[in-house]
Amino acid sequence: MKLTSPETIPDAHEDSIWTASWIPATEDSPPLLLTGSLDETVRLWDPESKNCILKNTGHSLGVVSVAAHPSGRIAASASIDSFIRVFDVVTNNTIATLEAPPSEIWQLKFNPEGKILAAAGGGSASIKLWDTAKWQPITTLSIPRPEGSKPGDKSSNKKFVLSVAWSADGRHIACGSMDGTISVFDVARAKFLHHLEGHCMPVRTLVYSSAPLDSRILFSGSDDGHVHVYDAEGKTMIAAMSGHASWVLSVDASPDGAAIVSGSSDKTVRLWDLKMRAATQIFSNHTDMVWTVAFGPPGRTDVRSCSLASVSDDKSISLYQYS
Amino acid sequence: MACVYIPVQNSEEEVRVALDQLPRDASDIVDILKAEQAPLDLWLIIAREYFKQGKIEQFRLILEEGSSPDIDEYYADVRYERIAILNALGAYYSYLGKIEAKQKEKEEYFIKATQYYNRASRIDMHEPSTWVGKGQLLLAKGDVEQAFAAFKIVLDGDRDNVPALLGQACVHFNRGRYSDSLELYKRALQVFPQCPAAVRLGIGLCRYKLGQFEKAKQAFERVLQLDNDNSDALVALAIMDLQSKNDDSIKLGMEKMKKAFDIYPYCAMSLNYLADHFFFTGQHKVVQDLTETALVVTNHGPTKSHAYYNLARSYHDMGDFEKAGMYYMQSVKENTAPREFVLPYYGLGQVQLKLGDLKSALTNFEKILEVHPDNCDTLKALGHIYIQLGQVEKAHEFLRKATKVDSHDPQAFLDLGELLIPTDTGAALDAFKTARNLLKNGNTKKKDKADRSNKGRHEDEVEEVPVELLNNIGVLHFERGEFELAEQAFRDALGDGIWLKFLDDKAEIMSADKKVEDTGADVPDKDSSKKSSVGEELSSDPEAQVDSLRTAQFPIDATASVHLYKDLSLFDRLEEQGIVVELPFNKVSTLFNLARLLEQLHHVETASIFYRLILYKYPDYPDAYLRLAAIAKARSNVTISTELLSDALKVDEKCQDALLMLGDLELKNDDWVKAKETFRAAKDMSDGDDSYASLCLGNWNYFAAIRSEKRAPKLEATHLEKAKELYSKVLLRHTGNLYAANGTGIVLAEKGQFDISKELFTQVQEAASGSVFVQMPDVWINLAHVHFAQGNFSLAVKMYQNCLRKFYYNTDSQVLLYLARTHYEAEQWQDCRKTLLRAIHLAPANYTLRFDIGAALQKFSSSTLQKEKRTTDELLSTIAELRNAVRVFSLMAASSNLHVHGFDEKKIETHVEYCKHLLEAAKVHYDAAERVDLDNKRRQEANEIARVAQVKQREAEERARADVIANLLLVCYIILFLFDLLINYLRQREKRKHDEEQKLMREQDLLLQRKKEQWSTPATKRKDRSQNEDEERHGEKKKKGGKRRKREKKAQYESDEAEPMEDQDEIYSVSHHQDDDKVDQTDGNPQDLFAAAGLEDSDAEEDTVPSNASRRRQAWSSDED
């Protein structure tokens, strides 16, 4: 398990790159990388040639999240103005513009089947779900208020939802809050299940393991510099890994389930061996905070290898090979 | 059978006296001698025989009779025999005097001896034997010079007089002129080769003293050949053997010494040496017996001194310092020649050092140093004393010298290193390293030796490099930021133990790259070989062990995970699994330091395990609680942090650090009153002497001054004054206290004395850079604030950016806010906007930032609209931004239904309305601009027409000159008139629009004016504070952080980053303006929607206030609260 040294696309955007997502390969196209930036554009990249294929404008205020539909044909992007733009990857035609006022929109994730789009609803302390066929809202998964708190209570602010993750089987959804708690929901029943505690600072990133047997395993990264590993169903913490010097901004799990990668505001990207429970590789190629790390789809020639992308405030994209 | 025959008077007969059968009662003999008037030489022979047989009484009786006045009279002409008898008696009494220990008797004997010699002299002045006797007597009395004279008289007469030669040799020996002495002994031997063994003894001693040890040895051996029982020779040989450093000969020497002791048990010298020996074998009782005997039998100063020294040493070794001191003292007193025997001074110095009498010890050691200026131990001892006396310079000098004298003495380097720690860590580190290397080399040498002599058993014999030394090396590396070296040193210090399992867990990971490629099989191999080499067996299978370490840690219930840092059950589980959880006491500090290092390297989890391990084994170790509390606090786990601190306080009620940290946490929880009490308690604990506590209180006062919800200028001033007083107090006591200086700077800045405060901040900033432990972002921020306040925006921006990068990994939204404000004031709209967006992205839940960006967009737009000239593009982007502003505000307005975030709905709505209004206005402007463009086109067309007309006119003129002029003119006039009309119409239209706009602006100005008036009354100004609490609380948190930071200088526990202190006083001015609006609103002073255009205010202000700087100051002072 290791990462090759990165190839970098410098100045991929005009300003900080905040978000990235891999678009699965389609019949006509190899896997592509979608990035969103403070410069209010969303750009599409061919990882092979390192060329920018498309440059979408239309967002105002920085782009905070991009998400790709599993089909590889549709993608969604959201910005600070809390609009979600759903568009056709190839034509860049807008398919839908979504919003859920008064809730703002932070992280976006399509479910594994591609039927639902979930968005972290920030101050509304909830996750918003849309149906991807008609682009109609399905439901809102709200974090229950702690007992005894009044509606006007400020503590609700602490449940501000920043991040969201689907379990590999699509049955569960987890969201991370400003106060460090992680809430787990049953999607089918639209029911809150339980909290996972351990962090006391904002949880900006969550990801379920994508390995077949580990669908309960949830990884979280927090401003406290730790990466936690939970059994999201068993409600237990499996490991706490320290090493980042500052906030953990992004975590992604490798397709083979053996490793995770984290990006941090300490400018490093770390590869963590899950068996060892510690960082085996540390990359310092970025010169500013690393906002997103993302594993790409398995390679065409070698299924055991895949790409990894990291994007940073330094305006660059780095591409690695994981094997 | 030897006989003497006493001739019977007046007859031919003789009385035959068998010398071996002398009657017990000597008076029989005396009677016979007297009766028969025997010749005096017979008397002498018989007396001598008695003496030889040890019958001293009889010997004396005969001689005394033989020297009685009757005899004198009777044998008046027999001179030589009379003299011989007298001399014999003189010699006898000299001897008695010599061996007598009691002073009084001794003198009496000497007097008697003198009397006899004098009588002999009266008989014949020139008899050499009398002079020899006198010389011996004088020698015995210690009167060396006179003895010299006496012997000289004899030798002048007969230079081969053997006894005189011997006597004179003895004199020379005593005078220390050993070669002269040797010459004389040699001559005596030449003259009288059969002389007794004792002569050769003299030669031996002279040779010995002259350093000719081999010849001395030969001489002594010769003595022993002649006289098997000569104890002096035995002792001498024994001493020589003992002095050789060879084990075998020492053994031989001891045997000889014992033999000498058996022959003559009262030889002080041999007693001393025996005592020496038994001291080293540790038989203190024997030592005491021997030395006591020695003390009784000798009067010889140096020997006594040696005996006392032995005794003292023995007590010293047994730990009885009082007695040892006493005997050392005695030894020193008896010691007539300190140059030759310095050891008692050393012992005395040591004991005095032990008993705390530094001054006396100092003098004693200095005495030794006079004799042996290069004695390493003495130099070290002196170094120590000077350290304790606080004279660092001198101590330094001595230790340096010690290390120079003996560059292989690890102890000297150790001491030197310790001395250097506070002043020069680099040099200290070097000294420690040298010490470590020396010890290591020593060990390997020993090891080699042990290996050669006894394979396999070397482990026990090797002296470990002390844990403390390695620990110190580690700490010094740590302080110098050399973390890897520090870790290695700590690991060396800790050796093997359970911690390695946790550490190696981590270490494996670091080298995992390789291991993955390795086959799994050799990993356990490596482990097991490592383990067996250290000889500890925890469990047979290392893999299983690592697993059990993990299973003991995880999984844990997610809800319980919050309490992780208090959880010690991990070790219980490990013990259940049969893993030994051990932590030797001498390694606790090192483990703690290692944990600190891991924290610094962000391996917080391993660090926390180590802290917990310390607590598991030593629950009374408050520092571990404090660190765990600090870790929990850094992770925002306030509850656990508080609990850990109260645990620490349970262990140690007087733990000031814990109290102070608790106060800090209370501040974090917004528990002001409690926090103040805690700080007070902490301060009282140290009798008000603790800088940190004072600083905390100072900070508290400062925050109180700038925080009070209802701004009471009086209260504010008193708080500020109090804060300043506290800071200054600390600064007075510790001129180097950065935090106090920083605090003072802040207070000065609050009072508008920017230049002084800037100077202060700059100095603090310089001082703070360069240490791993001192992290003071506050001062950067403060400096930036001052630059900002003085209108020096570009510098302020740079400062803020550097601070963000250097201390916060660019993650601090508060500093970004400062930055945005600076951009705002500098009218760098794009930068301001982006900075705010970044801040929002970092702190999404901070709605104040959203408000701020809305406001910034609004301001940006309105300022564009007010510009004299603007392009359509500008207008287009203005419109886009206004739409964004409307979006932001309306989102906020809507979400405020859901939750409170400190903003008034109405107010936001007014913003929304205002922005919408601006948007419309902008559209109008845009339309207008478009129309102007159109007009311009038309005008150009009209001009074209006119030109064409003119051309035509000219043509016409040419064509029909004068006659048609009138007609043409008329036509021209008409055309021009029409043209004018058209232009006028257009202008009027434009002007009307302009007026409309002007009117709007005037109205706004009016509003602003009104508002400004309201502003100028500060009491009303801060009402909004409560609403802005979000932001404020944020600020408070930081300050506390900063405060805690200060502690670090004192106790390097806190590793979290310091945070700005001054954030609060500098609430982002954009929001400030907004706040003011809010005041208006909440005060029930409803205004029309233009009132919401708070942003216009600053423009108005800018126009009215002439000097830029003064305006800033005003802004500052209003911001100060």
TrEMBL record, chain A:
InterPro entries: SKI8 (IPR051510), WD40/YVTN_repeat-like_dom_sf (IPR015943), WD40_PAC1 (IPR020472), WD40_repeat_CS (IPR019775), WD40_repeat_dom_sf (IPR036322), WD40_rpt (IPR001680)
Highest taxon, organism lineage: Eukaryota
Cellular component terms (Gene Ontology): Cdc73/Paf1 complex
WD repeats (start-end): 10-55, 56-97, 154-195, 196-240, 241-282
UniProt entry tagged with the keyword Repeat: yes
Annotated Pfam families: WD40
Keywords: Repeat, WD repeat
PANTHER family according to UniProt: SUPERKILLER COMPLEX PROTEIN 8, WD REPEAT-CONTAINING PROTEIN 61
Name of the molecule in the record: OLC1v1037808C1
Taxonomic lineage: Eukaryota, Viridiplantae, Streptophyta, Embryophyta, Tracheophyta
UniProtKB/TrEMBL annotation, chain B:
Biased composition (Acidic residues): 1054-1066
Keyword list, A-Z: Membrane, Repeat, TPR repeat, Transmembrane, Transmembrane helix
Basic residues bias locations: 1036-1049
Protein's UniProt keywords contain Transmembrane: yes
Region (Disordered): 443-463, 515-545, 1011-1121
A GO term for molecular function: RNA polymerase II complex binding
TPR repeat spans: 128-161, 162-195, 197-230, 305-338, 342-375, 376-409
GO cellular component: Cdc73/Paf1 complex
One GO term (biological process): regulation of DNA-templated transcription
Signal peptide coordinates: none
Transmembrane segments: 964-983
Compositional bias (Basic and acidic residues): 448-460, 515-534, 1025-1035, 1072-1081
Name the record gives this protein: OLC1v1037856C1
Upper taxonomic lineage: Eukaryota, Viridiplantae, Streptophyta, Embryophyta, Tracheophyta
